[in-house]
Design brief:
about 140 residues, mainly alpha, two-stranded antiparallel sheet, 6 helices, globular
Length: about 140
């Protein structure tokens, strides 16, 4: 817990450590995963687990190829037609797009790890959506 928030400390490129807050639903999913992983390892409490958060069946660190395989397998199982075109990076694009669509500021979303806001904007898949054009926002403000 960090000031009332459940957080993960993540190591990013260059060894930079950042805290990522978890929503209650995200925490519940992580905890369910950890409880299951602990049970499979014969442990009574997930807090006794050691090693990386996301691990292989034998407790090793996931490699990048594991994540690609996982994303595509889950997308295919979910019936996503373009499952073979997806990557773990697709999830980052989707997360940034959803955050901006939900009203998060570009500055806050930029904390996803980009130094330059133009990089973050390139991740926004709906940046060309006319429904989000600032003209509508200004018109509503002046009305």
């Amino acid at each position: 817990m960090d000031k009332g928030h459940r957080v993960l400390t993540v190591v990013r490129k260059g060894g930079k450590k950042v805290k990522v807050p978890l929503t209650p639903a995200a925490w519940a999913a992580v905890e369910a995963y950890l409880v299951d992983r602990a049970a499979r390892a014969g442990l009574a409490d997930w807090r006794a687990l050691e090693g990386p958060l996301l691990a292989t069946a034998v407790g090793g660190r996931l490699r990048q190829s594991h994540l690609w395989e996982l994303v595509r397998r889950l997308a295919k199982a979910a019936g996503i037609e373009v499952w073979d075109q997806l990557s773990p990076h697709s999830l980052r694009h989707t997360g940034i797009t959803l955050a901006l669509d939900a009203g998060a500021s570009l500055r806050d979303v930029q904390d996803a790890g980009h130094k330059d806001p133009r990089t973050t904007r390139r991740y926004d898949r709906s940046r060309d959506n006319l429904d989000r054009n600032a003209a509508y926002t200004v018109a509503a403000y002046l009305a």
